[in-house]
Amino acid sequence: MAFSLPPLPYDRGALAPHISEETLNYHYGKHHKAYVDKTNAAIEGTDLEGKTLIEVFKAAKQKGDQGLFNNSAQVWNHTFYWHGMTPNGGQPTGDIAAKIDEAFGSFDKFKEEFASKGAGNFASGWTWLVEKDGQLAIVNTDDASNPIAEGTGKPLLTMDVWEHAYYLDRQNARPDYIDHFFQVVNWEFVGECLGKDEADLIPEFN
């Protein structure tokens, strides 16, 4: 079966004023959809048809098929990104809050480090909070790559730092975008990811 563009977990205008409906119309409605369509076109009639999305982008990376890797990984990355946001953002609680305090000293120090890594992530890419061997860390990836493909940890949260994620709202002011991103982080989702296998993080693509 072909992959579908997963529905957003909120209305396109629900994240405003932090991320506008106009941005969602382009970022989700055009960019994300294009990644889905190109992935489907690339795997149709191949041995990857019917595989999970993670299996597709791992196989593409192993084969050196950069086009398929870029598109299929971007489908996964974007779906995970949308789930990591909510109109009702706040602060982490429970196990994820304790893990953040343990790893970074405090939530404020985590925010400082995450913002610094995101602002310094050169050109296009993603900034991630990951769990590896029971410990939390912040990692950057370039272009379409992600921690699952690189083996650097299980994703818990991601922030898209491609310019198409914020240009309509913030022009090239990435630090301003990062400040607004923290207002809409879905910490409940992040906490739920702690107890899941990587294959189950976004069930749309199991």
UniProtKB/TrEMBL annotation:
Catalysis: reaction(s): 2 superoxide + 2 H(+) = H2O2 + O2
Sequence ranges assigned to domain Manganese/iron superoxide dismutase N-terminal in this UniProt record: 3-85
Entry keyword Signal: no
Enzyme class: oxidoreductase
Catalytic activity, EC: 1.15.1.1
Annotated binding of Mn(2+), by residue: 27, 78, 160, 164
Entry annotated with the keyword Oxidoreductase: yes
GO terms assigned for molecular function: metal ion binding; superoxide dismutase activity
Record-linked SUPFAM superfamilies: Fe,Mn superoxide dismutase (SOD), C-terminal domain (SSF54719), Fe,Mn superoxide dismutase (SOD), N-terminal domain (SSF46609)
Superkingdom assignment: Bacteria
Domain Manganese/iron superoxide dismutase C-terminal residue range list: 92-191
Pfam families according to UniProt: Sod_Fe_C, Sod_Fe_N
InterPro entries given in the database record: Mn/Fe_SOD, Mn/Fe_SOD_BS, Mn/Fe_SOD_C, Mn/Fe_SOD_N, Mn/Fe_SOD_N_sf, SOD_C_sf
Keywords: Iron, Metal-binding, Oxidoreductase
Similarity field: Belongs to the iron/manganese superoxide dismutase family.
Function noted in UniProt: Destroys radicals which are normally produced within the cells and which are toxic to biological systems.
Name of protein: Superoxide dismutase
